[in-house]
């Protein structure tokens, strides 16, 4: 499950880096302040839209994987002994918990990036 945590962290870091690069690049561009702020706002909105889109795609993949694993576990569950049934329930619970954790991490990281960009925008006003 740590691979998924790393993926969320990498996605958040990439988005934060992209946002920072865009803001710095636009701040040092030789343009009027009003135009620069508009470009930063537009880029921030684009990055936010991309983050939301990526979150949706990732969330859908995780949901599909969860459904598939859960379905497989349920199918196998029918033929297992009582001891193995308990183990299968634990596996299904772990998968669900991991899904919830991964989803929450992506939402949190995306929100952090959006807040950072918005803070930078507010500082430019």
The computed structural class is mainly alpha
Count of separate DSSP helical elements: 3
Count of DSSP strands: 0
Low-confidence stretches: none
Helical residues, percent: over 70%
Helix/strand order: HHH
InterPro entries: Desiccation-related_membrane, YtxH
Protein name: Gas vesicle protein
Question: Could you explain the architecture of this structure?
Answer:
It is a single chain. The protein is mainly α and 125 residues long. Helices cover 91% and strands 0% of the residues. It contains 3 helices and no strands. It has helices spanning 2-27, 33-77, 82-124. The mean pLDDT is 78. This is Gas vesicle protein. InterPro entries: Desiccation-related_membrane, YtxH. It holds the Pfam family YtxH.
Topology:
Blueprint: H1 2-27, H2 33-77, H3 82-124
Organism: Epilithonimonas pallida
Protein name: Gas vesicle protein
Pfam family, one: YtxH
Search tags:
125 residues, rod-shaped
Structure, briefly:
By secondary structure, this protein is mainly alpha-helical. Helices cover 91% and strands 0% of the residues. The chain is rod-shaped.
């Amino acid at each position: 499950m740590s691979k998924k945590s790393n993926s969320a962290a990498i996605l958040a870091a990439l988005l934060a880096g992209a946002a920072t690069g865009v803001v710095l690049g636009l701040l040092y561009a030789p343009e009027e302040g009003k135009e620069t702020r508009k470009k930063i706002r537009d880029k921030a909105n684009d990055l936010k839209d991309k983050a939301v889109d990526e979150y949706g795609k990732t969330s859908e993949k995780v949901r599909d994987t969860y459904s598939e694993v859960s379905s497989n576990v349920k199918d196998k569950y029918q033929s297992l002994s009582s001891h193995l049934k308990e183990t299968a329930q634990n596996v299904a619970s772990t998968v669900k918990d991991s899904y919830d954790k991964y989803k929450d991490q992506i939402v949190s990281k995306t929100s952090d990036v959006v807040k950072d960009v918005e803070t930078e925008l507010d500082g430019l006003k």
